[in-house]
Design a protein that fits this description.
Layout lengths: L1 E6 L10 H4 L11 H9 L5 E6 L7 H6 L2 E5 L5 H13 L4 E4 L1 H5 L9 E3 L3 H14 L5 E2 L25 E4 L2 E2 L10 H5 L4 E2 L2 H13 L4 E5 L8 H18 L4 E7 L7 H9 L2 E9 L3 H6 L10 H10 L3 E8 L8 H12 L4 E5 L7 H8 L24 H15 L2 H14 L13 H17 L3 H14 L4 H24 L1
Parallel strand pairs: 1-2, 1-3, 3-4, 4-5, 5-6, 7-10, 10-11, 11-12, 12-13, 13-14
Antiparallel strand pairs: 8-9
Helix pairs in contact: 9-10, 13-15, 13-16, 16-18, 16-19, 17-18, 17-19, 18-19
Length: 497
């Protein structure tokens, strides 16, 4: 049996970092972890190829070669998904689809031959058994939650790691919180399900054996959902492995703001090689936090929480949302002021949307306020519901936020604020230094120090970092490249309106 696994293309998005990746000659930020994991669940004797449309093109010969074409995707990849399916059907290929996009909206894809929905650990094996029996059904679904302790190591041999700036692994699924706008609990549930330390060490060994050195993203819904297990076994095991391997990786993940309340946990994460964490801040407006059920963020000084995390050695990246019913007219300036004060350099600000299956979607449906499906890109100025605030006022204010926080002077001010507060403590192996970094440095000098309008701010902060925080020069250059990408995305978003 010959299987072609296809990962559709992302449009230009905030976290795609397309413009920043050019500095280090990379084509995509992360590999398609889900498809690589599914590939490892298929019979070993089957032939497999993977085409990631974010790094290469899809050839008709690849489609014709395959007995089955497997597709997995997020909602934001919908346009590319439809084009891939169209090409497959034109060439007579049998399409098998799964992942978040198809699980939340299976009725939108009548031209897909087989839908293997929800978690592949549960639904894939019955499909494979039916293929062997010559009686495959169209839809396979289950409300059962998988034991991730049985999830195999991804099949890394299917990709060229040199195309990516970071690798990905997953430790746990699920989140103990229930924010109204979030579909994580719909897809993965409330109870965090974790892998064992032996599994994670095996996955790190697999990446190491395949030659990877550098950043690894723990693609968890909420990495700290089970703090007890992290402290007792997982983080100490990762720290020991990393030391034994001479510090080949550094780690990034996602967590909730209550991480700031646990110094021991932060210290263990830093000791294990974590250097940055994404946190959903959403809004500094207390009423809006209560409205959406973001109770972990209420009744606390959010800026102080961010400072605590920075001070202990983790850089905070964060997501923000505008468009809550409770948002006042002052929300735009409040968001700008908070972001600038906090020193959160990578601040993704999006418009509120209501994905299918969420409590927000159901509430707005009951209020007859839904307009259409979400695009999956919360920076494209689209709203899939009727907001309480005047729509033009909301979009104009949102545009003001983006243009302000990503202007060169304000962006570099946040980098400066971060460098004052951030106290990195992790160890980095010499093996992580590559020629790509030299090229990235030279390209930063040219594009940001000579070509861009904000070059004066760039050089002033570069000189300041070199003399005050010499160990943080690589971080400064990385953030400067990110800023270039964010400004490009902001310009594109403004053009969409």
């Amino acid at each position: 049996m010959r299987i072609l696994l296809v990962y559709p293309q992302y449009p230009l998005t905030f976290w795609g970092l397309k413009h920043a990746l050019k500095f280090i000659s990379k084509k995509a930020a992360f590999p398609p972890l889900g498809l690589l994991t599914v590939a490892a669940m298929l019979p070993p004797v089957w032939e497999k190829r993977l085409v990631d449309l974010n790094v290469t093109g899809l050839k008709d010969e690849d489609i014709k070669w395959a007995d089955y074409v497997f597709i997995s995707a997020m909602v934001v990849q919908k346009e590319s998904v439809r084009e891939v399916i169209r090409r497959c059907k034109k060439l007579g290929a049998t399409v098998v689809a799964g992942g978040p996009l198809f699980t939340t909206a299976p009725e939108d894809f009548e031209d897909v031959d087989h839908l293997v929905l929800n978690e592949a650990e549960i639904t894939l094996q019955p499909f494979l058994a039916d293929i062997a029996a010559g009686a495959a059904r169209r839809i396979y679904t289950s409300e059962e939650r998988a034991e991730v302790t049985r999830t195999p190591v991804p099949l890394w041999s299917l990709i060229n790691m040199k195309n990516y700036s970071s690798m990905s692994i997953q430790y746990c699924r699920g989140c103990p919180f229930d924010c109204e706008f979030c579909d994580i609990v719909v897809l993965d549930g409330h109870k965090p399900r974790t892998k064992g330390k032996e599994q994670i060490i095996a996955e790190l060994d697999a990446l190491y054996t395949h030659g990877w050195r550098g950043s690894v993203f723990f693609a968890d819904d909420n990495f700290i959902g089970n703090k007890k297990k992290l402290k007792a076994e997982m983080l100490p095991a990762i720290a020991e492995w990393r030391q034994r391997r001479r510090y080949p990786f550094n780690f990034i993940t996602q967590a909730s703001i209550n991480l700031a309340d646990d110094d021991e946990l932060i210290d263990l994460m830093v000791g294990a090689g974590f250097n940055s964490v994404f946190i959903g801040i959403e809004t500094p407006h207390e009423a809006s936090l209560s409205e959406c059920g973001k109770f972990a963020n209420t009744s606390r000084d959010l800026a102080l929480s961010i400072k605590r995390i920075h001070n202990r050695g983790l850089e905070v990246m964060a997501g923000f949302i505008i468009g809550f019913d409770s948002d006042p007219a002052s929300i735009f300036q409040s968001q700008i002021s908070f972001i600038q004060k906090s020193g959160i350099v990578s601040a993704m600000v999006g418009l509120l949307n209501a994905p299918r299956g969420t409590r927000l979607h159901q509430r707005l449906k009951n209020e007859n306020r839904l307009l259409k499906d979400v695009t999956g890109d919360n920076m494209d100025f689209s709203l899939n519901f009727i907001p309480k605030m005047n729509r033009e006022t909301l979009i104009d204010g949102y545009k003001q936020v983006l243009n302000t926080i990503y202007s060169p002077n304000n962006y570099y001010d946040r980098v400066r604020a971060l460098l004052r507060e951030y106290k990195p403590k992790h160890k980095t192996g010499i093996s992580q230094f590559k020629f790509d970094h030299v090229k990235g440095f030279c390209r930063c000098m040219w594009w940001l120090g000579i070509r861009e309008k904000g070059r004066r701010d760039y050089w002033m902060l570069f000189a300041s970092t070199l003399f005050k925080y010499p160990r943080s020069v690589p971080l400064f250059l990385t953030l400067a490249a990110y800023g270039y990408h964010f400004r490009k995305v902001t310009v594109t978003c403004n053009g969409m309106r």
